[in-house]
Each structure stands twice: as C-alpha cells, then as structure tokens.
Design goal:
Chain lengths: 286, 467
C-alpha cells in the first residue's frame, strides 16, 4: 500500500507542476482569505528579483486597500490585513532587497507585530524550497486556484464592489468598536518603545540609501480627530520632522470608521499616485 | 517544537536512525529521553527544569510506594498525587484565581496572573498521577507488577521515558502507566508496523495541516466583534467549521503521536473513534478524547463512587467529573460551564435511561441532535469570554436580515470541512466490509500526501497545546 500511495503522490505532483507551469493563468486571483492574501503579497515580493527603482508601501489593512494600478510603475504594496507596519518593514529588511523608497503608513504605529507571519515565511528549508519550486507557493494552492476559477466565472469584481457597498449598513458595530479603540492612547513608555523601534527601522533603511516617506491613510473624520490618531500624527511629526509626510485631509467614506470604501480607496489611490510622482520629480530635479 | 515544523523533522529523523542501530540498542531509553528533552525545551529552555522536577517527584514517589516501608505506602502515594496536583494547580489556575478573587492592581493578583502556563503540563501531571496511583494499586493487581522495577537507575529511565516521550508529552494521548510501562523493552527495526505508522502519520498530518490549519483562517471570524456583522447562515457554517477544525486539529495531533510512537515501537491508545457519529452523549465521550475520558473515569469518577450507589450519587459524580474535566481544559470559567453542560446532559441522559424512557427516532436524527449540541458547546472553547458567547448566539438567531452572506467564507469552510464529514461517512459505510476500500486506500493516501505538500494552511500550534 505504501508504495502505491507514493506512486499516486508522485503522479499528482508531476501533473500539478505541469498545470501550474503551462495552464494556470498568470492573473488568476487565488486569494482565499486575509492571511492567504498577505502571504501571497509577501511571497511575490521576496521571490521577485531586486528592483532598485521600486517603491514599497508598508502598513496595515488601511493601506492594504490602496490600488496599485493608480500608482507609479515599480510600486509594491506590503500592507497586510491584521498585521502592522513593523511586519512590512522587517519583511523588506529580511528580504535583503534595496528598493528606492519605502512608504510607511503611520495610522497603526502603536500596534504589536506578528512574529509568526514572518517566521513562517522565512522558515529555513521551506523558504528555499518555495523559492525554487513555484508550485509550493501560497498563490498556487489547489484550493486557491479552484476559487480563482470560480471567482472568474462569477465576475468577482462586480460582486466585490457590491459587497463593499452593502457592508456599510451593518458596520456600525465595528465603527463603535474602533471608536472605543481610538479613544485610548497607550502609556508614554509604550509609545516610546514603538517609536524607538520605528526610528531604528527607518535608520537601517536610510543607511542603505533607501528614502523613507510617511503616509497617513485617511479614515473617518471622527476618528481622524480621535486621541489615538492625533497622538500618532504628532509623534511622527516630532520624531521625523524632516521626512515627507503625505496626508490628505479631505472627507472620506469608510466602511467601519477605518477602512476606505471601494470607490473612495480608488480615488485616494489616484491622489497618492500623483503625490509619489511629484516626489519622483522633486528627486530628479537638480 | 511543533510536529509540523522543520526543526522537529531534523530532531526525529536522526533519533529514529540512531535508535535502531545495533550498538545503540542498550541506550534506546536514554536516546528517547534526550530527544524528548530537546523537543520540550526548544522554545523555552527553562521549562525543562519544571519537567525534570515533576519527573523527580514521580520517580521518587512511585518507587517509595512499591519498595518503601509497607506502612508508609499510602502516605507516599497521597504525597505523589498531591504534588502533581499542586504543580498543575499552581501553574494552570493561578492566573484564574488572580483574575477572579483579587482586585485589579493588587500585588498578589498581578503575581498570580503573571505565572506562565507551561505547555503540556496538564498532560504530564496526569500521567504522573496515573503512575503513582497504578503503582499503589499494584499491591493488589498482578498486571501492574511491571510498573515499578527495583533498580533506581532503571526505574528512573523507564519513568522518564513514560512521562517525557515526545510523541505524547505536550498534548497526549494521556497515556496510563499500566498501558505504557509493560511495553518498555529493547525495540527492533524489523518489528515496526510500517503500514499502521504510515497511515497514522499521513492521516494525522493531513487532518492537522490541510484541514485544521485551513479552517483556522475561516473560523478566525468567530472573534469578537467581527461575528456581529455576519449573516446567521454564515455564523452557522462557521460554528460547524469550528467543530470540524477542533476535531481535525486534535485527532490529527493524536494520530501523528500514535504514528510516531509506532515508529519507535510503542502502542498508544486510539484517542478518537469517529465521535461525530455518536447517537448519545455517553457514546460521544467514549469516542472523543478517549484517553482523557478513560482517565477521568478510572481515576476520578470510579473513586468518587461511580454509579455504585445509583440515583442522585451517580448524577452528582457525573457532574463533578465533567466540571473538573472542563476546568482541566483551561483556566477560565467558560471551560467549567462547558464541563457543566456536558455533565448535565450526561446526567439527564442517565436519568432518562434509569426511568426507562426512550425516544424512537431514526438514528440519523439522534446523530444530528448530538452533533448540534456538541458543536454549540464548542463555542465556549472558541470564545472564552461568556458575554461574547451570548452575543454570538444572539447574532446566530438574529442576523437574518444582513445582506452580506460572505460566500467565500462559506465556500472555504465547507470545502475544508468536507474531509472530516467524509472521514465519518466513510467509517459508517465501511462498517460493512467492502472490497472497493482496499483498492481505494492508496489513492486516498496519495491524495492526502499531495495536499499536505501543496495545500497546507498557515502553520499554527495545536489547539490542545493551550490546555
């Protein structure tokens, strides 16, 4: 039985490797859930060749909604739902890559990173295996590929937009939770610990010649004025007074006080794209 | 160290190869103990001192019970059991006592809350209790005679292997001394049951890495406050998925443990026997976490009096056993409520049986009823805050108006639950022998191996590690 099981296994592996290599569409959306989306973005970044022209956005689920097609070419978004800016910064560092610029979201700087995410990504042995064998990467999981075809069949884009709009009516619960969270400011000692860490990460990037830009993703007007948001903003302005800090104070519609609604995220991405292009122009002006 | 991690593979493979080398046969126990200590100390080396302390207590007390002064045997046995319970209570329940009985900010309360929970403590202290009690009972029962040998060094090696063997150290099965220690002898490579080892390991890793770890990313949404905005149907599916996840996670772990133990020449008892086909609560507890249920029956329920005095005493013993069994799972009152619930339904079931009442319904209806009740009770595991449990139930019945049904979550939850459902259905179907199954097995194992390689979920520790 064992020999025959191993034979079946070998046939399946060979067949699936051929499918991934020759038949799977490159643009198939195989994201299964938030953690899977995070993992796919992270693997795409670390397994791609180093790009000295790259701009990398690091942040939380707030910046995750930024649409890359509105941004300048060579831009990657390493903003992860459920994770923090520190996870993205550490990912850039551990990947050994040297992008031109890193854009750091500032909304959630007082939040603990998730070590398990990066430890799983860089697990010795498996990391090298996934780098060498694309079939083993998250984006090629059979269940993700299956749902990718299903989404394609159901024209997922429209459904997604509709569900974003629908979710507004029932997000009052989350808005209330977020309101309570943003009313609390962590003690000074905790703030200092996070800011020291952020400063160390920024200095490490700059030591490699990488530009650092800060970005406050717009949230609801009420939460923008909350104690936590104000404190994070002031802390960045005091700690990093000479760094560009991109902010847009227009009024935006959110699903839950924090996350931009679909169309607003598109509009905001266009604004951010223009800002990043302006920074490029400033840098190239003698 | 997790069974599904590269470091574990790098530990277990050399251990296995060395273990069966002819010149290492004399040192098989020492090798298992060293590997088990590395396994246990991998993430937090200081924990090893606690394990060694616990081992010392159990080695000394069990030896004293059998070979010490006859008049003192009961005292030694009592001291051994009390010491094991004291370790368990101190490390496991101090935070609960700190949170429940001391005001916020009080020094004693803060100290109690800060005491960390060492992984596997619930399991190895229970095995220690089993050792001391079995050694004490050995005066009367011939089958227990091989438990405690006279030579102190050999006794220490045997007991250290029994308690610290990495296959069952951190999450069971809860092995009893009288089941394990008689198996301690020199092991030979030719004696390995490869088919059973292979079957247990492949099924176990599949249940853990493909089913449970993928379901975990869906059942994450049973988290406050996210579930409040989900449709009732989504909440039902998520709860169903959690029921599948907790089975796949723990049954998977148990099968890996059993498969590993087979590889090293030891037979551990089956821990799960298709529990979701149960038609009564008592049958469920004969099929779910069998090693714990039988431990509680043997070392708690029967010593309390079991059903010997009948009537009220039986119901009281059932309730007490299940509440304590609930608290064994975790230091939170929700676990006690979970145990109380199971104690209550077992007592009611017993009462109905005693009164001679019976409900004539198709077996499937009984099965679905028991499964639904058990699944509802798992909510107390997922949401240790009782208020959140109540809120989830409110949303479960009240969120029928929400338009956003989250089809992707429903799809993946059902997709990854399907193997567990199939696993149980296959068992029901296979109760009548079918020749087709023999031919199908290699295909099933081949597919499971393939999915372990390409479709494993995000690595996560086992749910039962927290207990």
């Amino acid at each position: 039985m064992i020999r025959r099981s191993l034979l079946v296994f070998a046939l399946l592996v060979a067949g699936y490797a051929l499918f991934i290599r020759f038949l799977k569409p490159a643009d198939l959306n195989t994201v299964q859930h938030q953690a899977s989306g995070n993992r796919i973005s992270a693997e795409e970044y670390v397994f791609a060749p180093d790009d000295p022209e790259a701009t990398v956005i690091v942040g939380s689920s707030l910046a995750f909604r930024i649409a890359l097609d509105s941004l300048p070419p060579h831009t990657s978004n390493l903003s992860f739902g459920g994770l923090t800016v520190y996870d993205g910064l550490e990912l850039v560092r551990r990947s050994g890559k040297h992008p031109k610029r890193v854009v750091v979201e500032t909304n959630m700087i007082f939040k603990e990173p998730d070590r398990a995410f990066l430890d799983a990504l860089f697990q010795p042995g498996l990391y090298e295996l996934r780098k060498a064998v694309p079939m083993l990467r998250e984006e090629n999981q059979p269940s993700g590929v299956l749902v990718g075809y299903l989404k394609r069949g159901m024209k997922e884009g429209d459904a997604s937009a509709a569900s974003q709009a629908d979710s507004m009516e029932v997000s009052e619960n989350l808005f209330n939770t977020n309101r309570a969270i943003f009313a609390q400011v962590p003690p000074d000692s905790v703030q200092t610990r996070y800011l020291d860490r952020l400063e160390a990460e920024v200095k490490a990037l700059e030591a490699q010649g990488i530009d650092v830009v800060f970005l406050e993703v717009p949230i609801s007007a009420e939460l923008m004025a909350s104690p936590l948001a104000r404190r994070a903003r002031e802390a960045i302005q005091v700690r990093f007074p000479h760094h560009p800090f991109l902010r847009n104070e227009a009024t935006w519609r959110t699903a839950d006080g924090l996350h931009l609604q679909w169309h607003n995220a598109q509009r905001y991405s266009r604004w951010l794209g223009a800002e990043l292009r302006a920074l490029d122009q400033d840098a190239s002006t003698p | 160290m997790l069974f599904n991690s590269v470091p574990f593979l790098l530990l277990v493979l050399p251990t296995f190869l060395l273990y069966y080398l002819p010149f290492m046969r004399r040192f098989q126990l020492q090798l298992l103990i060293i590997s088990s200590f590395i396994f246990y100390a991998w993430s937090m080396p200081w924990l090893l001192s606690l394990l060694v302390f616990s081992l010392a207590i159990n080695v000394a007390s069990s030896h004293a019970v059998v070979h010490g002064a006859a008049a003192m045997r009961r005292t030694y046995a009592t001291l051994g059991v009390v010491a094991n319970l004291a370790i368990l209570v101190f490390f496991k329940y101090s935070p609960l006592v700190g949170r429940s009985f001391f005001p916020e900010g009080s020094g004693v309360g803060e100290f109690l809350i800060s005491i960390p929970l060492p992984v596997g403590i619930s399991f190895f202290t229970f095995q220690g209790i089993s050792l001391v009690v079995d050694a004490y009972r050995g005066k009367d029962i011939a089958a227990y005679n091989s438990i405690v040998v006279k030579g102190m060094w050999e006794h220490t090696l045997r007991i250290s292997t029994f308690i610290s063997f990495f296959a069952q150290l951190v999450a069971g099965p809860v092995v009893k001394a009288h089941e394990f220690l008689p198996q301690v002898r020199t092991k030979y490579f030719k004696e390995i049951d490869w088919h059973s080892t292979f079957a247990c390991l492949v099924t176990g890793y599949f249940l853990k890495m493909v089913v449970a770890d993928n379901l975990k990313d869906q059942t994450f949404w049973i988290t406050f406050p996210y579930f409040r905005d989900m449709h009732s149907i989504t909440l039902v599916v998520l709860l169903f998925g959690y029921s599948m996840q907790i089975f796949a996670d723990f049954a998977g772990y148990s099968l890996i443990a059993i498969g590993l133990a087979h590889g090293f020449g030891y037979m551990l008892m089956a821990n799960f026997n298709f529990p979701y086909i149960s038609t009564t609560f008592s049958e469920f507890w004969r099929r779910w976490h069998i090693s714990l249920s039988s431990f509680l029956r043997e070392y708690l329920y029967i010593p309390l009096g079991g059903n010997r005095k009948g009537g009220f005493n039986t119901y009281r013993n059932l309730m007490l056993t299940m509440v304590l069994g609930g608290l064994w799972h975790g230091a939170a009152w929700s676990y006690a409520v979970w145990g109380f619930f199971h104690g209550l339904v077992l007592a009611v079931e017993r009462l109905v049986k005693d009164l001679g009442w019976s409900v004539k319904l198709p077996r499937t209806i009984h099965m679905l009823f028991i499964f639904s009740m058990v699944t509802l009770a798992w909510l107390l595991f997922k949401l240790p805050d009782f208020d959140h449990v109540v809120e989830y139930m409110r949303a479960l019945f009240g969120n029928t108006h929400i338009t956003n049904l989250q089809p992707i979550i429903i799809f993946f939850t059902l997709l990854f639950s399907a193997p567990v459902v199939g696993y149980h259905l296959l068992y029901l179907w296979n109760q009548r022998p079918r020749a087709a199954m023999a031919g199908l097995r290699p295909v099933l194992y081949g597919v499971m191996l393939f999915l372990i390689l390409v479709n494993a979920g995000g690595g996560a520790s086992f749910i039962y590690f927290q207990f």
